[in-house]
Amino acid sequence: MKKMWSGRFLASASNLLDEFNASIMYDRKLYIEDIEGSLAHAQMLTHQKILTKEELTQITDGLAQVKSEIESGEFVWSIHDEDLHMGIEKRLTAIIGDAGKKLHTARSRNDQVAVDFRRWVLKRNLDIIESLKLLMSEILVVANEHTQTLIPGMTHLQHAQPTNFGFHLCAYLSMFKRDIERLQDSYKRCNVSPLGCAALAGTPHKIDRDMTAKLLGFDSVSVNCLDTVSDRDFALEILFNISTMMMHISRLSEELVMWSSYEFSFIELSDEYSTGSSIMPQKKNPDVPELLRGKTGRVYGSLMGLLTVMKGLPLAYNKDTQEDKEGVFDSVETALISLEILKEAIKTMEVKSHNMQSACSVGHLAATDLADYLVEKCGIPFREAHFITGRAVAKAEELGIDLSDIEFKYLKEIDARIDEDVLEYLVLKNSMNARTSAGGTSTVRTKEQLEFFRKFLKDNKQ
Ligand code: ARG
Fold this sequence. Notes:
The longest helix has 37 residues, at 109-145. The protein is elongated. Helix content is 63%, strand content 5%. The protein is mainly alpha-helical. Helix 3 (31-47) packs across helix 9 (209-215), helix 8 runs parallel beside helix 20 (443-459) and helix 12 runs antiparallel to helix 13. The model has no long low-confidence stretch (mean pLDDT 96). The chain starts with 14 loop residues before the first helix and ends with a helix. It has helices at residues 15-21, 24-27, 31-47, 53-72, 84-96, 98-102, 109-145, 165-190, 209-215, 225-230, 233-260, 287-310, 325-348, 353-359, 367-378, 382-399, 408-414, 422-426, 428-434, 443-459; strands at 150-155, 158-164, 192-193, 220-221, 267-268, 350-351. Strands 1-2 form a two-stranded antiparallel sheet. Helix 9 (209-215) links the parallel strand 3 and strand 4 (220-221). The protein binds arginine (ARG). Arginine is lined by residues 23, 27, 83, 109-110, 113, 317, 319, 321-322. Its main location: cytoplasm. Residues 7-301 form the Fumarate lyase N-terminal domain.
C-alpha cells in the first residue's frame, strides 16, 4: 500500500513492518483531539492567508464527516495508515480532494501528536479531579457521623492511643486533597501549546501560534520547539500523580480488607460490593479493596515504563516516544474506575462502631495519658513519668485488665503523688478528647478538620 511518505522509497513496506510500526489501533482514542487540532490549525492558516476561505469550509465539513464516520463505526481503521493522524488525513483527502492535502502545511505529526495527547491528558486530569472530589464528599459523610466513635489509633499496627473514626478518615481526606492539588498544579504547568513547532525547528510559514493555542484552550505557547516535540513530561506527571493517588487508595484498601476480617470486624462491605468463593459457601470476600490494592502495581509499572522509554533519548522526536500512550490510557482508566468503585464501597459499607469501641479496651491505649497526668499534675519530668507509667502497665497486665480499668489503689501504690482525679485521665473518651492540639484527634479538632475539607470542596467546585 502506498504511504503518504513514500516519495523517496522504491519498494513498499512489508506487512510485518506495518504491524510493528502502527499505533493506529490505540491512538485512535485521540480522534476528537486530532480533529479539533486540525480545525484550529486550518482556521489559523486561513487567517494567515495560507488557505482560502473555501478550502477552510471544505476542511471543516470534511472533518465533520470523518468525525461522524468514526462515531458511527463506519470509519476504516487500518494499520497500513500507521497512525490516526494519517488515517484521518487520508480519509479527509478522499472526501474533499486537494484541500485535504494542504492541511498539513506548517505542521508535522511531531507537533500534532504532542497536541492531541497533551490535550487528552489534560482533559482526563480534570476528570480525575472531579472523581476525587466525589470520593472525598462520600468519605466526609461517613467521617461526619463518627467524630465520637472511638477506634484504636495504631503505630506499627499495635494499639497506640484512642482516636475517633472520623479523625482516621480525615487522614485519607488529607491525602486525596493533596492528590487533587498535585493534579491542579500539573494542569497549570502542562497547559502549553505545542502546535506550530512542526517537526523540530519551527516553520518558515507565517503562522500564528497564539491563535491556535487560544482556540484549543491552552494558556500559552511552548518556548522551544526542539524540547516541545519530544517532551512527554505531561504524560509522566499524570502517571506519577495517579501512582501517588493509587498508593493512597491502596493504603485505605488495605485497612478496609483488615477491618472486614473477623479479627477486626470494624466494617462490613455491602453485598453489592463483595464477592463469594466458588468452594467455601460461607465466604464473603473483600475483592474490591484487594483489587484496588493490586491495580496500584500496573500503574507504577506504566510510570516506570515511560520513564525508561524517555531515558537517554537524544533530541528531538524519536519513534520510541510512540510507546508513551498505552500505559497512560490504561492508568487513566484504572484511576477513574478505582475512584468510582471505592466511593461506592465506602458509601454502602456498614461501620460497626461498637466493635471499634470495644477494640479500644485492650492494649492500654490510655498509657500516654497517665504519663501526661504525671507531668501536668505532679510536675514529674516526662522520662520519669514514662517509667512510672510502664510500671502501671505491668501491674494492669499482671491483673489481666486494661490500664483504663485499673483501680486507684494500685496506682497510688506505684507512686504516692498520684491523686484520684487520675481516673478521669484514663477514661478512653477523655483521652481521645484531651488531644486538642492543632490537627489532633479530639472531637472538636476533628470537626474543625471536617469543616476544612468541606470548605476545600466548596472552594474547588467546578
Ligand atoms: N504515531 C506517532 C506517535 O505516536 C506520531 C508521530 C510520528 N512522527 C514521526 N516522525 N514518525 O508518536
